[in-house]
Write a structure and sequence with these properties.
215 residues, mainly alpha, 78% helix
Length: 215
Protein backbone atom coordinates (compact mmCIF):
# COMPACT_ATOMS: atom_id res chain seq x y z
CA UNK A 1 0.00 0.00 0.00
CA UNK A 2 1.42 3.41 -0.97
CA UNK A 3 2.14 5.75 1.91
CA UNK A 4 0.31 9.04 2.08
CA UNK A 5 3.56 11.00 2.34
CA UNK A 6 5.28 9.15 -0.50
CA UNK A 7 5.76 11.21 -3.69
CA UNK A 8 3.37 10.53 -6.52
CA UNK A 9 5.08 9.09 -9.60
CA UNK A 10 5.45 11.52 -12.48
CA UNK A 11 3.28 10.65 -15.48
CA UNK A 12 4.62 10.96 -19.00
CA UNK A 13 2.74 11.49 -22.25
CA UNK A 14 2.37 7.74 -22.82
CA UNK A 15 0.67 7.24 -19.46
CA UNK A 16 -1.71 10.11 -20.16
CA UNK A 17 -2.71 8.82 -23.61
CA UNK A 18 -3.19 5.29 -22.26
CA UNK A 19 -5.46 6.54 -19.46
CA UNK A 20 -3.23 5.16 -16.68
CA UNK A 21 -4.74 7.75 -14.34
CA UNK A 22 -8.30 8.51 -15.40
CA UNK A 23 -8.51 11.81 -13.50
CA UNK A 24 -5.31 13.27 -14.97
CA UNK A 25 -6.17 12.12 -18.50
CA UNK A 26 -9.71 13.46 -18.18
CA UNK A 27 -8.40 16.88 -17.11
CA UNK A 28 -5.95 17.01 -20.02
CA UNK A 29 -8.54 15.79 -22.52
CA UNK A 30 -11.28 18.20 -21.41
CA UNK A 31 -8.84 21.14 -21.31
CA UNK A 32 -7.58 20.40 -24.82
CA UNK A 33 -11.09 19.84 -26.15
CA UNK A 34 -12.32 23.15 -24.72
CA UNK A 35 -9.29 24.89 -26.19
CA UNK A 36 -10.05 23.48 -29.64
CA UNK A 37 -13.68 24.57 -29.35
CA UNK A 38 -12.50 28.08 -28.47
CA UNK A 39 -10.22 28.09 -31.50
CA UNK A 40 -13.21 27.32 -33.74
CA UNK A 41 -15.04 30.41 -32.44
CA UNK A 42 -12.21 32.88 -31.90
CA UNK A 43 -8.79 33.66 -33.33
CA UNK A 44 -5.62 32.13 -31.93
CA UNK A 45 -4.47 35.51 -30.59
CA UNK A 46 -7.77 36.06 -28.78
CA UNK A 47 -7.68 32.61 -27.20
CA UNK A 48 -4.07 32.99 -26.02
CA UNK A 49 -4.59 36.49 -24.61
CA UNK A 50 -7.77 35.45 -22.76
CA UNK A 51 -6.01 32.42 -21.27
CA UNK A 52 -3.19 34.72 -20.13
CA UNK A 53 -5.75 37.12 -18.60
CA UNK A 54 -7.49 34.30 -16.76
CA UNK A 55 -4.14 33.18 -15.32
CA UNK A 56 -2.91 36.70 -14.48
CA UNK A 57 -6.06 38.30 -13.01
CA UNK A 58 -6.47 35.99 -9.96
CA UNK A 59 -2.77 36.23 -9.11
CA UNK A 60 -2.84 40.03 -9.40
CA UNK A 61 -5.95 40.23 -7.21
CA UNK A 62 -4.31 37.96 -4.62
CA UNK A 63 -1.15 40.10 -4.61
CA UNK A 64 -3.13 43.34 -4.15
CA UNK A 65 -5.25 41.79 -1.40
CA UNK A 66 -2.24 40.54 0.54
CA UNK A 67 -0.41 43.84 0.05
CA UNK A 68 -3.40 45.78 1.40
CA UNK A 69 -3.69 43.34 4.30
CA UNK A 70 -0.01 43.79 5.20
CA UNK A 71 -0.37 47.59 5.00
CA UNK A 72 -3.49 47.54 7.18
CA UNK A 73 -1.90 45.29 9.82
CA UNK A 74 1.46 47.08 9.47
CA UNK A 75 3.28 43.83 8.93
CA UNK A 76 6.02 42.96 6.50
CA UNK A 77 4.66 41.64 3.22
CA UNK A 78 5.76 38.15 2.24
CA UNK A 79 4.87 36.79 -1.15
CA UNK A 80 2.76 33.60 -0.79
CA UNK A 81 4.50 32.01 -3.79
CA UNK A 82 8.01 32.95 -2.74
CA UNK A 83 9.09 29.30 -2.83
CA UNK A 84 8.22 29.07 -6.51
CA UNK A 85 9.79 32.45 -7.36
CA UNK A 86 13.06 31.50 -5.70
CA UNK A 87 13.47 28.35 -7.76
CA UNK A 88 16.00 28.60 -10.57
CA UNK A 89 14.77 27.88 -14.08
CA UNK A 90 17.68 26.32 -15.88
CA UNK A 91 18.56 23.51 -18.23
CA UNK A 92 21.70 21.54 -17.57
CA UNK A 93 24.38 21.54 -20.26
CA UNK A 94 24.28 17.76 -20.52
CA UNK A 95 20.53 17.75 -21.06
CA UNK A 96 20.76 20.59 -23.59
CA UNK A 97 23.47 18.73 -25.49
CA UNK A 98 21.42 15.53 -25.38
CA UNK A 99 18.29 17.25 -26.70
CA UNK A 100 20.27 19.10 -29.37
CA UNK A 101 21.92 15.89 -30.49
CA UNK A 102 18.56 14.13 -30.72
CA UNK A 103 16.97 17.01 -32.65
CA UNK A 104 19.87 17.32 -35.08
CA UNK A 105 19.98 13.57 -35.61
CA UNK A 106 16.24 13.50 -36.29
CA UNK A 107 16.52 16.44 -38.71
CA UNK A 108 19.36 14.78 -40.64
CA UNK A 109 17.50 11.45 -40.80
CA UNK A 110 14.30 13.12 -42.01
CA UNK A 111 16.15 15.18 -44.61
CA UNK A 112 17.91 12.08 -45.92
CA UNK A 113 14.64 10.14 -46.07
CA UNK A 114 12.76 12.94 -47.83
CA UNK A 115 15.57 13.37 -50.33
CA UNK A 116 15.45 9.67 -51.15
CA UNK A 117 11.66 9.75 -51.48
CA UNK A 118 11.35 12.85 -53.67
CA UNK A 119 14.33 11.93 -55.85
CA UNK A 120 12.85 8.41 -56.28
CA UNK A 121 15.77 6.45 -54.91
CA UNK A 122 13.41 3.54 -54.21
CA UNK A 123 10.49 3.33 -56.63
CA UNK A 124 8.24 1.38 -54.24
CA UNK A 125 8.68 3.87 -51.38
CA UNK A 126 8.09 6.85 -53.68
CA UNK A 127 4.92 5.23 -55.00
CA UNK A 128 3.68 4.76 -51.43
CA UNK A 129 4.39 8.43 -50.73
CA UNK A 130 2.51 9.43 -53.87
CA UNK A 131 -0.53 7.45 -52.79
CA UNK A 132 -0.37 8.85 -49.26
CA UNK A 133 -0.12 12.44 -50.53
CA UNK A 134 -3.06 11.89 -52.87
CA UNK A 135 -5.19 10.50 -50.03
CA UNK A 136 -4.24 13.44 -47.78
CA UNK A 137 -5.05 15.98 -50.51
CA UNK A 138 -8.40 14.26 -51.09
CA UNK A 139 -9.22 14.29 -47.37
CA UNK A 140 -8.19 17.96 -47.10
CA UNK A 141 -10.89 18.86 -49.63
CA UNK A 142 -13.58 17.51 -47.30
CA UNK A 143 -12.28 18.62 -43.90
CA UNK A 144 -10.85 21.91 -42.66
CA UNK A 145 -7.66 22.20 -40.67
CA UNK A 146 -9.43 22.60 -37.33
CA UNK A 147 -11.62 19.56 -38.08
CA UNK A 148 -8.55 17.46 -38.80
CA UNK A 149 -7.04 18.77 -35.56
CA UNK A 150 -10.17 17.65 -33.69
CA UNK A 151 -9.92 14.20 -35.26
CA UNK A 152 -6.21 13.93 -34.47
CA UNK A 153 -6.75 15.07 -30.88
CA UNK A 154 -9.57 12.61 -30.22
CA UNK A 155 -7.62 9.87 -32.00
CA UNK A 156 -4.60 10.51 -29.77
CA UNK A 157 -6.72 9.72 -26.71
CA UNK A 158 -8.56 6.73 -28.20
CA UNK A 159 -6.35 4.90 -30.71
CA UNK A 160 -3.44 4.18 -28.30
CA UNK A 161 -5.87 2.81 -25.71
CA UNK A 162 -7.63 0.62 -28.29
CA UNK A 163 -4.27 -0.64 -29.54
CA UNK A 164 -3.18 -1.35 -25.97
CA UNK A 165 -6.29 -3.49 -25.48
CA UNK A 166 -6.45 -5.22 -28.88
CA UNK A 167 -2.83 -5.02 -30.10
CA UNK A 168 -2.60 -8.66 -31.24
CA UNK A 169 -5.68 -8.51 -33.45
CA UNK A 170 -4.67 -5.13 -34.91
CA UNK A 171 -1.14 -6.34 -35.71
CA UNK A 172 -2.59 -9.34 -37.51
CA UNK A 173 -4.80 -7.14 -39.69
CA UNK A 174 -1.99 -4.67 -40.36
CA UNK A 175 0.28 -7.53 -41.39
CA UNK A 176 -2.24 -8.67 -43.99
CA UNK A 177 -2.65 -5.12 -45.31
CA UNK A 178 1.12 -4.63 -45.47
CA UNK A 179 1.52 -7.88 -47.41
CA UNK A 180 -1.17 -6.83 -49.89
CA UNK A 181 0.46 -3.41 -50.39
CA UNK A 182 3.90 -4.95 -50.88
CA UNK A 183 2.50 -7.42 -53.43
CA UNK A 184 0.80 -4.60 -55.36
CA UNK A 185 3.91 -2.39 -55.37
CA UNK A 186 6.05 -5.39 -56.30
CA UNK A 187 3.87 -6.11 -59.34
CA UNK A 188 4.04 -2.45 -60.39
CA UNK A 189 7.81 -2.18 -60.03
CA UNK A 190 8.35 -5.48 -61.88
CA UNK A 191 6.63 -4.05 -64.95
CA UNK A 192 8.80 -0.92 -64.97
CA UNK A 193 11.74 -1.39 -67.37
CA UNK A 194 15.09 -1.31 -65.65
CA UNK A 195 17.95 0.82 -66.91
CA UNK A 196 20.56 -0.72 -69.20
CA UNK A 197 23.81 -1.77 -67.65
CA UNK A 198 27.08 0.03 -68.27
CA UNK A 199 29.05 -1.63 -71.15
CA UNK A 200 32.09 -2.01 -68.90
CA UNK A 201 29.93 -3.85 -66.34
CA UNK A 202 28.54 -6.04 -69.14
CA UNK A 203 32.04 -6.97 -70.33
CA UNK A 204 33.10 -7.75 -66.77
CA UNK A 205 30.07 -9.99 -66.34
CA UNK A 206 30.86 -11.82 -69.63
CA UNK A 207 34.48 -12.35 -68.55
CA UNK A 208 33.31 -13.76 -65.24
CA UNK A 209 30.94 -16.13 -67.06
CA UNK A 210 33.77 -17.29 -69.40
CA UNK A 211 36.08 -17.89 -66.44
CA UNK A 212 33.39 -20.01 -64.79
CA UNK A 213 32.98 -22.08 -67.97
CA UNK A 214 36.75 -22.65 -68.29
CA UNK A 215 37.04 -23.70 -64.69
Amino acid sequence: MRSIDSPRPVMDVKDILLWRDVKVTAIVFVSGFVLLICLTQFSVVSVLTNIALVCLAPMLALRLLLTARSAFLRTEFEHPLKAYLSKDIEVSKDKADFVGEKVSGFAVAMSTKLRALFLVDDLADSLKLLIALYVISYVAQWFSGITLTFIAFIGAFTIPKIYDMYGTEINSCLGKIKSAVEDATGKITSKVPKGTKNPADKETQEENDNDKKVS
